[in-house]
Amino acid sequence: MSDDSLPAPAPTRTAAVIPAAGRGVRLGPGAPKALRTLGGTPMLIHAVRALAASRAVSLVVVVAPPDGTAEVKSLLDAHALPERTDFLLVPGGESRQESVRLGLDALPPGYDIVLVHDAARPLVPVDTVDAVIEAVREGAPAVVPALPLADTVKEVEPAATQGEPEPVLATPERARLRAVQTPQGFDRATLIRAHETVTDDVTDDAGMVEQLGVTVVVVPGHEEAFKVTRPLDLVLAEAVLARRRLNDGF
Ligand code: CTP
Ligand code: MG
User: Fold this and answer.
1) Which CATH number does the domain housing residue 39 bear?
2) DSSP states along 42-60
3) Which atom of ligand 1 is nearest to the CA of 121?
4) Which of 18, 118, 201, when mutated, tests ligand 1's pocket best, judged by the most ligand atoms within 8 Å of its CB?
5) What is the count of structural domains for the chain?
6) 16 phi and psi angles, rounded to 5 deg
7) Residue 3 has pLDDT above 60, yes or no
8) In this UniProt entry, which residues are annotated as the site Positions MEP for the nucleophilic attack (predicted)?
């Protein structure tokens, strides 16, 4: 028998923070990376659509290049985005870590699960987004999608001059290594605590949570969630879009 006097448990709401404030130095000269186009559409719009495609995501916080906020605002207005999703726009900072923190500062109350997703991973499939959210809903405080490595990895003593031979220090067992992607998903309070406590420069949010001593778990990533970093990655991204267009046509 149901008890009408008890309020229904509040549904867990999920927000996504998309850091998009980087310059994209490794991609070469041009517009900030997130504003470069793939198939005629800015990378950032692809990334926003990829996250908003998940029915669980009800808010997307875009962290824009500080000098490009107005441009990003008009891009978001000009492109079709799901009606059911809310959007917020904030200017980013000097480092990815700072940009993510500025995005978290703008999060309204009521979102218990937070995803952090690189604008530079524009083609992540919605199934990967949903798998990350599901693992957080099932109780993991921090979840990262990741893939096994194709290449063997060596730890080296970095050379002082670029191009000089570098002595190898160790070869970690490849089968135990994973290349991590985004979206990374978190219990909101855990992620906020990590950003308040950890100040070392880290390259992903899960790394900050690890420093708190909290367990991070890995779920399967997807090869289409690769990061657009260097010029060849643009070629791959265009090819993935072309393959999708073909498959959609049949
Ligand atoms: N990012 C950010 N704010 C910064 C630096 C990076 O929001 N100050 C974002 C980028 O826009 C990107 C994500 O963090 O979506 C991952 O960073 P990366 O791939 O390194 O992008 P960039 O820093 O732009 O590229 P590069 O390092 O080649 O300059
Ligand atoms: Mg960078």
Assistant:
1) 3.90.550.10
2) EHHHHHHHHHHTSTTEEEE
3) 15
4) 118
5) 1
6) -120, 130
7) no
8) 174, 227
